[in-house]
Amino acid sequence: MSAAHAPVSSSTAVKDAFPATDAEAFTQHLATLRRQVEAAMDASLADRPDIVANVPPSLRESMRYSALGGGKRLRPVLVLLACEACGTPVAQSMPAAVALEMIHCYSLIHDDLPAMDDDDLRRGRPTNHIVYGEATAILAGDGLLTRAFEVLATEIPSKDVALACVADLASAAGWCGMVGGQAADLAAETTPITTLAELEQIHHRKTGRLLACALTMGGRIGGASALQLAALSRYGFAIGLAFQIADDLLDVEGTSEKLGKQTQKDAGAGKATYPGFLGVEASRQRAADLVAQACGELELFGPQGEWLAHLSRFIIERDH
Amino acid sequence: MSAAHAPVSSSTAVKDAFPATDAEAFTQHLATLRRQVEAAMDASLADRPDIVANVPPSLRESMRYSALGGGKRLRPVLVLLACEACGTPVAQSMPAAVALEMIHCYSLIHDDLPAMDDDDLRRGRPTNHIVYGEATAILAGDGLLTRAFEVLATEIPSKDVALACVADLASAAGWCGMVGGQAADLAAETTPITTLAELEQIHHRKTGRLLACALTMGGRIGGASALQLAALSRYGFAIGLAFQIADDLLDVEGTSEKLGKQTQKDAGAGKATYPGFLGVEASRQRAADLVAQACGELELFGPQGEWLAHLSRFIIERDH
Questions:
Q1: B180 contact residues in A (CB cutoff 8 A)
Q2: pLDDT at residue A6 is higher than 60
Q3: B55 in reach of chain A (CB within 8 A)
Q4: What is the pTM (predicted TM-score) of this model?
Q5: Contact B47, B58 (CB under 8 A)
Q6: How distant is the Cα of B158 from the closest Cα of chain A, in angstroms?
Q7: ipTM score assigned to the predicted complex
Q8: Is residue B5 in some structural domain?
Q9: Does B47 lie at the interface with A, CB-CB under 8 angstroms?
């Protein structure tokens, strides 16, 4: 797992560290999982007769617009890979993957609202409220958030596991997790963040909790032991932070064409970032260290943890 | 249960139909349950050290402002009374009562937003976004919605019952239920409602589903049989509609002083209402018929259903 220590700014470095076949196999596996997630999201928001009879078309279309709008599908893929790392077929964890992605999609809709980040563009497309109006966008977010818990409660075969997943997701997405992190981010607009510890604490809640939850839910469904669950959770927090650092680096270095959203926005808004605190090179090193740490957590899974190791490296190579 | 057929516009009529002691005992019981709900809501959003460490003060205060802002507490009281009707102590159903009320409170915060109903006043106090700003109000709603599922998943002793309650609540509050009803209500602003059936369908989703869910969750926790659960659900739908008719009548007849919110707003906005379709007298009769029907559903519960019968009559006597 020494490849995690390679310079993370060049995709060549990572590719060299693995046999080409491994990298290709991973890329293929990732593409397969993403297609499966896309199909499952579609099915979970499908126009069945009972849905058409009860859900106004504007709300249905608005929910589907944001839930099926592509994107990296990182969170649901993590659920599936965690399940697979335990030796369990990925299909069993698809409901949890769908639920988690619905939470992520709702949070993007609400974050983009004029009263929040006021973004017009997301994944290269107009944001939800630009297309459907603010009122419907608020309701679409509420609808996806609520549907996530419905999917967990009704589609996971083991009741004990389903209930644990509901508790995991509600905790990770709620006031002590993602919603709290978003509120802290808002508060930072008037009381600027002055230390790296504060910045990490916000990322921990805004991104880390939900990524760790992806791993924990996948692990629970996969039948992970308590030790394995704890390791998966730590892996999630480590890659969550690495992901955020990579995001900050992309904002400094990327272009809006590649990202499908506005870049250099953070610096322009005077927002605290990793490169702002540490500089670009040290930020890259910190991301690489976190990936190494994440890979270290996978020892309990043996060869079955290899996809997750690949994914952690992929996360800081996102500009492709 | 003939009192349900008495004219519902005069509280004297209903009081005459029951021994004064019954009415007093009910009023006392209701006050006790409301106090218990208030205390449980407070405890569930309390400033514990782990909350203070993770939830920014603005979000915490905003969530508490709307969740502890008084109100009738009709929905949580229904949960408790349904549990009690099955011969089970009300305390066991308090987590479900709290969760349901959190859903109701979140929906009010989001409904009041400028992009939605744009209300400045709720329960005689400034609405959440007037006090905390729109961004925090959106997050407070999201936080309460998510916390509701956390409470259900972690505080109901029986895992089977807890999971069934999560499924009930997510279905009742989601795109096919409350959120869908709200979207249909929005759509009616541009495509006006022309039939009573359409109006009832919107109320069914916007109010009825959540009230029926209150009864079903309380019944589940109380150990209701399948027949009893179905009866409780029908009772919930009947009083939900009666409640909405009473609300429409209050809007025609009430004053903003009594209600703590603007009245005669519906007619002014050209909104479809029961009195608009049926006239005032026929609307009163329909409400009374629905209460009679609701009381009829309580036969399976014997004397233990008496508090629910009282409550159904109380609902259409809300102007006191």
A1: 54-56, 59, 143
A2: no
A3: yes
A4: 0.90
A5: no
A6: 10
A7: 0.90
A8: no
A9: no
